[in-house]
Write a structure and sequence with these properties.
The protein contains 9 helices and 15 strands. By secondary structure, it is α/β, with parallel strands linked by helices.
């Protein structure tokens, strides 16, 4: 966590000498720092005093879950029952996995499309109610507009330092050069350039960016983020797939805490181990629903393709890009198991 101090008067940030102690702020009456348009354009950003207190060498885990579209998962454009709430459920599962990995709710932000997810969804009901209580509680604007996304990314850029961990998950529709932001209008685009500029200002010790969108393999390959491992749910020029029971991102993050992914049984689940097992599970899921897609699924919302043509355009083959200051052998979860000793030859 960055050693930042807040001066309430004038709504501005100031860096004070490290010798200043936390109790020196006892006489400051205002507990929240509001950054206005006159302070670097960070309109709507608020950092609490507790967020800005110094922490010596503390590793803090931060995460930003962005479900940027609900198009196709609810009325009036719900094509098939298997699609209901698929983006929302994917984001909830990612959030639940992050909490299991020790990410505290105050260090996570969750934005959803137009800010109105289905809290009555029966799948993942426990996790949904936790997300509602911890994130959709009127403490910040949960709409996934570009303005709100940038506000939160700027907030993280102030908080995250090179001793911290930062995870960015994006679930939406996409193309090779853009990600859809439904709340800003039909096919509103968050471009590669805009993502690069915003995320490049967040410099953690270790970062993960997961793009759960069509054509996202091409998208992440255009980013240059040295501290990050970048993962996409599909290849460069293919449609991805998501449904009520599956998304590439949720499978990956769930495997980050699943002991079955620990292939070398050393008690540590690395990104590569989770990635490898998530890929096998994604392939198995698509095989399981293949008959349904061929014979029952309503493809009207998929460009009017016939089922065999549509399925031929879909791939769940993940893509990973490792920044030159990062590693796929990083882990965020310890299973608590004692590593199995190697057998002597």
């Amino acid at each position: 966590m960055k050693t930042l101090y807040a001066i309430a008067a004038g709504a501005a940030l100031a860096l004070l000498p490290a010798a200043v102690k936390a109790n020196d702020f006892e006489n400051i009456e205002t507990e929240v720092l509001e950054v206005t348009e006159n302070a670097n354009g960070l309109s709507g950003l608020a950092l609490s005093m507790s967020e800005l207190q110094p922490s010596e060498d503390e590793v803090t885990r931060y995460a930003f879950v962005v479900v940027a579209s609900g198009r196709g998962e609810r009325s009036p454009d719900l094509s098939d029952p298997i699609d209901k709430n698929f983006f929302w459920l994917g984001g909830v599962r990612v959030y639940d996995s992050l909490r299991q990995m020790g990410f505290e709710p105050e260090n996570i932000r969750f934005l959803y499309s137009r800010g109105d997810p289905d809290f009555n969804e029966t799948l993942e009901s426990r996790a949904i109610q936790i997300v509602k209580k911890e994130q959709f509680n009127n403490t910040y604007d949960n709409k996934a507009t570009e303005a709100n996304i940038n506000i939160q990314l700027k907030r993280f850029s102030l908080l995250v330092d090179n001793n911290d961990i930062f995870v960015l998950y994006i679930g939406t529709h996409g193309a090779e050069n853009m990600l859809e932001l439904e709340a800003d209008g039909y096919f509103a685009a968050w471009t590669v350039k805009e993502v690069q500029e915003a995320v490049d200002k967040i410099n953690p010790g270790f970062g993960i960016l997961y793009s759960d969108a069509c054509h996202s393999g091409a998208f992440i390959k255009q980013l240059n983020l040295p501290e990050y491992v970048l993962i996409s749910t599909t290849g460069e020029h293919t449609y991805g797939w998501g449904d009520r029971y599956f998304s590439g991102g949720s499978y990956f993050f769930q495997n980050m805490t699943d002991g079955e992914a620990d292939t070398n049984i050393d008690g540590k689940i690395t990104l590569m181990e989770a990635y490898t097992r998530a890929q096998a599970e994604a392939n198995a899921h698509m095989q399981r629903i293949d008959s349904y897609l061929e014979n029952q699924y309503n493809w009207d919302g998929f460009g009017g393709y016939e089922s065999e043509v549509a399925t031929g355009h879909i791939s769940v083959q993940q893509t990973m890009v490792v920044g030159n200051a990062s590693s796929p052998d990083f882990y965020l979860y310890d299973t608590g198991m004692t590593p199995i000793p190697r057998q002597r030859q």
